[in-house]
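Take a record:
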Amino acid sequence: MLIQHLPLLSSKRIVLASASPRRSELLRGLGLKVEILPSTFAENLEKSAFAGAGEYAVATATQKAIEVFRRTCEAGKLADLIVAADTVVEIDTQILEKPLDKEDAMRMLTSLSGCKHKVYSGVVLVLPSFSDPALDQSPLIRSFWEETVVEFAELEDEAICAYAASGEPMGKAGGYGIQGIGGSFVKGIEGCFFNVMGFPVHRFCVEVDSLVKNGAFSAKPQ
């Protein structure tokens, strides 16, 4: 998995292209030294252009990663690994991102009440100093998305109003945080819990493990 690679990874410059405190907390919890450099990408891709929510999340994460990659190149300070992610909620084919305001959060929570929905996190890993074998050019880019099914209890209107007023829904896909008060709404999940928080920890570790074993962090850069 990842723990045996920490001596190698601790010597690398790992940049998280996100201001999310949850993602940085999860990555640092794995023992990684992470530098925070939030992407400035506007996150305004047209949802209808994608086959599904997973593809949409990966596309957004890709744009975040590329923006930070270009910025580090311009600054002359290449990272060894850039990590970008985007999380969305899907219910009845509708993609929910972060609520715009309290009323938007209430609308989202009402739509999730008493139903199952899916949470998708798209993750993109960029290794600026290595070439992609398929393209024979740098950077090396790996991407994936993870899906978790979440079931909500029936929510009373008073609970929705109180939760929206608490401010916790803001900045969170679907208008709730499973690691906070919003976790009390969840009857059960199928899949990765951390994916609902915004970062699929296990799948990330599997992908990095594969990259290390294939020499991406120790071989001579292309």
